[in-house]
Design a protein that fits this description.
two-stranded antiparallel ribbon
Length: about 200
Amino acid sequence: MSTSATLAVVILAAGGSSRMGQPKQLVDVDGLSLVRRSALTALGARIGRVIAVVGAEADSVAGKLVGLDVTIARNDHWATGLSSSLRAGIAAAREHSANAVLFIAADQPFVTADALVEITQHWRQGGRIVASGYAGTVGLPVLFDAAFFGDIEALTGDRGAKGVILAHGSEVVRVPLIVAATDIDTPEDLARLRG
């Protein structure tokens, strides 16, 4: 992969957070909303254009990113499921001529800038899909080379990109990332995080 190839980091922050009972993107932990924390992590990695996909409570979520060099991509179809946010992220990345997209979740507060840099390095060394490995599975954060944008755009409903990862298993670089196993989905998760 050419060192001049461009990358977009896409923060998935459009969901309705039905299990949390409130928009988890807006939840404060140590004085920072989860979405702003994710944006600061992505910006701190200095690996490419940062894009936040917003949907539910879009104006409030975007408001948490004011003052940061983050492009806002609105997903008006967020209620149809995760695939719509992935497509919105790819569309925004295409507008910035990105050669790859690194998807991160707004609800994984322990993912670090260093981890994002490590994932990106695997891509620059020729990895075409670079996925976080934890708890016997793979998932976010995950990087897709542009060759797979079409596969992601073909997804429908409330489906993430794991099917794309699994369908191209021989091309996947797995990066052990235990901290990615911790996401904030429920009030109990949030209480443990704050505790």
